[in-house]
Amino acid sequence: MVLPLTMNAVLAGSSPNGPVPNSVSFALSGIIQSITILVPTLYLMHRSTEGIGVFGWKKLSLVSDVAGGLALGCVALLAALITDAALSNIGLEPNHSALEELHIAAKAGGLPCILTIAFLILNSFSEEMVMRAFVMLRLKQLFRSTAVAVIVSSLFFAGYHIYQGVGGAISVLITGLIFGGFYIWQARVVPLIIAHTFMNLVLMFTWIGN
Predict the structure, then answer these.
(1) pTM of this prediction?
(2) Sign of torsion, CA 167 170 176 182?
(3) Are 182 and 56 a contacting pair, CB within 8 Å?
(4) Which of 95, 98, 157, 174 is disulfide-compatible with 1, CB 3.0–4.6 A?
């Protein structure tokens, strides 16, 4: 969710029927961003001789992966809401501009809503493949410490969400630690993708801005 303002500027006025709606350009920018992050990572995984299992791709278990992902999503979402409330009380309220865009798309329906849902699914897939499946493994190999791998990858995860403000980055850090801990426990990436997607969709369709 780092490029929407840039894409808004690029796409504004580019359509023969007038400016592209912000919610559409927001979703398209997110899709492009996710692809540019995901493709190099998948290439590096493909070039690896370790096999996809080491990156958390195991035989799909519909019940445990889906149920585990939804349960994890609920826990992480509750933790994020509690963290946001606590931070707001001390003057570190997260920047909710990205959530506002999601909510606008949800209310608009049609193409903006469809594109935004597609973006959120792809965003969840790309972030979990990069931050948990790939980066955590490499950090664990580099530092020879599972704890360091979880903490450092979570700091990276929070760092590129700094556009949400300090409070937002702290909230994302907590989510990263929860997801990282789950990944170390289960070594399965599919539940994380499901949890991440679930959180994003819940926020899209339920969050009400001030």
Answers:
(1) 0.86
(2) negative
(3) no
(4) 98
Q: How confident is the model over 103-124, as pLDDT tens digits?
A: 888 888 899 999 999 999 999 9
Distance CA 72, CA 35 (A): 25
Contact 69/194 with Cβ under 8 angstroms? yes
> For residue 50, which phi and psi values (nearest 5 degrees)?
-85, -20
Position 11 scores a pLDDT of: 40
pLDDT at 50: 86
- Within 10 A of 209 (CB to CB), how many other CB atoms are there? 11
Q: φ, ψ for residue 183 (rounded to 5)?
A: -65, -40
Q: Which tokens is 209 given?
A: 């801005």
Q: Cα(118)–Cα(201) distance, rounded to whole angstroms?
A: 10
**Quick check: helix, strand or coil at residue 152?**
helix
Using an 8 Å Cβ cutoff, are 171 and 44 in contact? no
**C-alpha dihedral sign at 124, 144, 160, 206:** positive
Tokens, residue 96: 């909710």
What are the residue ranges in the chain where pLDDT is below 50?
2-20, 208-210
Two tokens, residue 192:
């994380």
Q: How much is the pLDDT for 3? A: 43
Residue 158 to residue 31: CA distance in whole angstroms: 20
- Nearest partner of 205 among 68, 113, 77, 95, judged by Cα: 113
